[in-house]
Amino acid sequence: MAIESSFLTISASLSKQSRIITALVMREMTTRYGRQGLGFAWVIGEPLIFCFGVLILWSLTKPPYEHGVRLAPFVMTGYMSLILIRHFIALLSSALQANMGLMYHRQIAPLHIFMSRVLLELGGATGAFVVVYAVLLALGQVSLPHDYLLLYAGWLLLAWDALGFSLVLTGLAMRYEVMERLVPVISYILIPISGAFYMVSWIAPGMRSFVLWIPFVHPIEMIRAGVFGEFVATFYNAPYAILLGAIMTIAGLLIISASRDRIEVE
To answer: For an engineered disulfide with 218, which of 99, 154, 199, 241 has Cβ 3.0 to 4.6 Å away?
Structure first.
């Protein structure tokens, strides 16, 4: 009976948390995209437009192949990955300020707000990735993935690392006012160093070990390994990226928890 009672309590609690997060996701979609025009379609449409814009620009200014890698799938995998990282940072760092009124409700915690934005952005970026891939496939610019499981694992691992990094930045921004100004700068710094627009195999062997300290490089290399197959050299260490994502997530949550007094609403 005790086990059954505990199970029912846990089930009820999970159901309650799920309803709260679902309601916040719907509220976030309505607030951000409105009910007019394309509305919710912008969840996918926004990253879609940016990706195709960069792809067209690169196609006009660069050769069809870069270091033996076809341009379209390289830009697609890199830019969609960069969008996911930067949107996580931007949305989580401003999540509490944009939803401060919700903190009047005792049932809503900062983690609910973060999770709603994470799920919305992950769903939108994933949908945009699928649509971009399908369009380029129809145009003959890309081939079907060589390893679907590796592609999925790399994408989810990238989201995991982006979540952890974003939570750390969010917690620091809550504690230190100067970090609010540094977060956009850090987001821009990630453009050249994240691995979105280069591959580890292009770097001199003596410098690769330094690049591989960057957590985002590993999942992006996994995504490209899943798309290109074994004929394109990739370098990644999934356990390292998983561990670092876990460390950043725990550290970020601890910093945010320690900063609750700075966002407490009476």
So the answer is: 241
